[in-house]
Write a structure and sequence with these properties.
The complex is a heterodimer of chains A (about 110) and B (about 120). Chain A has about 110 residues and is mostly beta strands. Chain A has no helices and eleven strands. Chain A has strands at about 5, 10-15, 20-25, 35-40, 45-50, 55-60, 60-65, 70-75, 85-90, 100, 105-110. In chain A, strands 2, 4, 5, 9, 10 and 11 form a six-stranded mixed sheet that branches. Chain A has a five-stranded antiparallel sheet with strand order 1-3-8-7-6, with no helix packed on it. In chain A, β9 (about 85-90) and β10 (about 100) form a beta hairpin. Chain A starts with a strand and ends with a strand. Chain B has strands at about 5, 10-15, 20-25, 30-35, 45-50, 55, 65-70, 75-80, 90-95, 105, 110-115. Chain B is globular and about 40 Å long. In chain B, β5 and β6 form a beta hairpin. Classes of the chains: A mainly beta (about 110), B mainly beta (about 120). The interface between A and B is medium-sized, with 22 and 27 residues.
């Protein structure tokens, strides 16, 4: 079982729609969860962090965490073509010095 | 958001040569990390550096790799004898001292090409 799993996509949504990105993780002891956006050839850019069960909203982005189901999601409302990128789910490995375990990423394409 | 710069942006080297990749955080930080991303693959943890020593390293980080903070500001990753499979993007990440979170911020990366 992969430590962090994401659907590779591509996920194609029309401009203005809601994009829903999902992630599951295997380490039940994980405490911190992150969504990064990565444009082609660029570095990961932090979008959201979430630590507690439930929803966390920041502008057009909402992160959702369900530790019992070991599931994290990211919703992007009013999707824009500029949101087209690969979205990386990262989980902080329990214990140690907080190394991040990344999923392979979901490629999102927002078409006009 | 903390600023991190990396140099060079692109390094081309011959197999067997040594390379040094540099990370320069703009302000003071305690936790440093190196990750790499082979083209088309996921971001992989290499090593974490805390209080001027390695705190954790992955299986990838073998004897060919080393890290140091030579002058208290720059944070370097050295690959002693590069192999073709070392070709990848290398990202430095920092975790700020303040804020009470464990969020990591990534530098722009160095693209290493081994010929």
């Amino acid at each position: 079982q992969k430590e962090v799993e994401q659907n590779s996509g591509p996920l194609s949504v029309p401009e203005g729609a809601i994009a829903s990105l999902n992630c599951t993780y295997s380490d039940r002891g994980s405490q911190s969860f992150f969504w990064y956006r990565q444009y082609s050839g660029k570095s990961p850019e932090l979008i959201m962090s979430i630590y507690s069960n439930g929803d966390k909203e920041d502008g057009r982005f909402t992160a959702q965490l369900n530790k019992a189901s070991q599931y994290v999601s990211l919703l992007i409302r009013d999707s824009q073509p500029s949101d087209s990128a690969t979205y990386l789910c990262a989980v902080n490995k329990s214990g140690g010095y907080n190394k991040l375990i990344f999923g392979a990423g979901t490629r999102l394409a927002v078409h006009p | 958001e903390p600023e991190v710069t990396q140099t060079p942006s692109h390094q081309v080297t011959q197999m067997g040569q040594e390379v040094i990749l540099r990370c320069v955080p703009i302000s003071n930080h305690l936790y440093f990390y190196w990750y790499r991303q082979i083209l088309g693959q996921k971001v992989e943890f290499l090593v974490s550096f805390y209080n001027n020593e390695i705190s954790e390293k992955s299986e990838i980080f073998d004897d060919q790799f080393s890290v140091e903070r030579p002058d208290g500001s720059n944070f370097t990753l050295k690959i002693r004898s590069t192999k073709l499979e070392d070709s990848a993007m290398y990202f430095c990440a920092i975790r700020p001292l303040n804020g009470g979170t464990d969020t990591q911020y990534f530098g722009p990366g160095t693209r290493l090409t081994v010929l």
